[in-house]
Amino acid sequence: EIVLTQSPATLSLSPGERATLSCRASQSVSSYLAWFQQRPGQAPRLLIYDASNRATGVPARFSGSGSGTDFTLTIDSLEPEDFAVYYCHQRSNWPLTFGGGTKVEIK
Amino acid sequence: EVQLVESGGDLVQPGGSLRLSCVASGFMFTDYSMNWVRQAPGKGLEWVSYISSSSANIFFGDSVKGRFIISRDNAKNSLYLQMTSLRAEDTAVYYCVRVSRATGTMDYWGQGTLVTVSS
What we know:
Chain A contains no helices and eleven strands. Chain A is an all-beta fold. In chain A, a hairpin with a 6-residue loop joins β9 and β10.
C-alpha cells in the first residue's frame, strides 16, 4: 500500500498569505496524484488532478506541482473560503489511498 | 448538473448488515466507473471500493474485503454497497464518488450518508 504523508498537519496563515502544502508518497506514484479541498460539513471537492492540472472551475490561485514521490499544493493569496482541510490522493496503485490531510486555519 | 445522492445510512448493531444506495443523475452513469469513500467522524478519507462501468473490475480496501460487496444497476443509474459483519470502526459518512472518464480521477462526490455501528 502506498502511504501518503502530508505536512504540516496544520497551517496557520492570514488571508492574503501564500499556503504551501506538501504530500510525500512512500513510493513513486508518477503524476497520478490529486488534491481535494474539504470545507466543514461538506463533501470533498477536486482541485488538482494528475499533479498539476486544475479541475474545472478551480481558481488560478491554486496550483500543484511535483512527480514521483514529492508533491506540493500552493494557494496564492488565501481567500476566506480557502480555510479548509486539504487531502492528497494517489490513483497509481491499488489500494487507492489518501493522505491524512492538512488543515489550513486562520491565524 | 452532475448529482450523486446517497441513502441508506442508519444506526446498526455490531455484526449487523446495511445496504447503501447512490442514485446518479446529470451524466451517462453507464459510462462511468464509481467508488465508495468513507470518512470516520473527525478523521480523514478512506477509499472503500471501486467498480468499473460494466462491473467487470471490482476492488476493495483491505479493511472491508470479504465483508462488503459493491454493485451497480446501470438501468437504474444506481450504485450500491452491501455491508455485512459491521464493526464499530465502520462508523463513518460514506460518499459515492464518480471517476472522470477524461482523467481517471475521482471528480464528483455525493453529500454522503452516515452509518453508525453501535450497540
